[in-house]
Amino acid sequence: MRLLWNTIYVCCLVWILTDNRTFAQAKVSIDGETRLKERATHQKTDTLASEMPTSLTFTASTDQRFTFFNDTRTEDNRRTPVSVYGIRAGFLFPPSHRRANLKGGRMASFKAGAGFYFVNQSLNQPGLLPNSSESVTRRLRMATVYYERYLYRQKAFEISMPLELGYGHSRYERNDDVAEKHELARGVFIPLGVGVSGAYHFPNVRWLPPLHWFGINLLVGYRFILKKDIPESQINYSGLYLSVGPSFFLENLTADIKQWGKKRKRNK
Fold this sequence. Notes:
Layout: H1 2-51, E1 57-67, E2 82-93, E3 102-103, E4 110-123, E5 136-154, E6 157-174, E7 182-201, E8 214-227, E9 239-248, H2 250-267
Parallel strand pairs: 3-5
Antiparallel strand pairs: 1-2, 1-9, 2-4, 4-5, 5-6, 6-7, 7-8, 8-9
């Protein structure tokens, strides 16, 4: 009888020890998996936080456009393009939340800033100005503020929609006397422009970093004149404008400079 009780006691003791060890192993396994999940979550959160920029990025570029003014036409009544030269500068604003169509590169939701443009044009169309039959030289100066929201931005490609509002000054001079210019008229106008812009950034080549500072830009839009400079004239700056050509992306240069500075600090 005593042998039977001893056998039962030993079996119970073995079962308790085995069960505790199994429980401990299960607990260690569960705790290990929990810590791994928490570590992965923290790493993912840190990665997302590092990818999401929190500061503004300065950007600037030259801007040459071919504008089709309604008052500049050929003899067969076709519009001819007028070269408008300018420069604009502003800031890239980081997104407040993640957007699936904005990935890679300098992540930004939109950019905003100001620009300046000028035009010097000879007009051989008498009668544009009231009480004037001479050919004239037109000089336009225009300052604008712009808001450009990114619709798509994936690494090297980007599509945006710029909206511009400006304040312009015009001056017309009679150009029959080369020695002395005679002013015929001047005025103030307010333009409003809306368009669609697309750009391609050249790839980042390790042995040639400056390459991805440049790219190709395409802009198509239309300019409306909210206030005419000389209401009684036939002058009208409304019309289609477009721009196609190489572009310089200052934000790519500044990003490289910041990265080089961080590397120098780590190497010291």
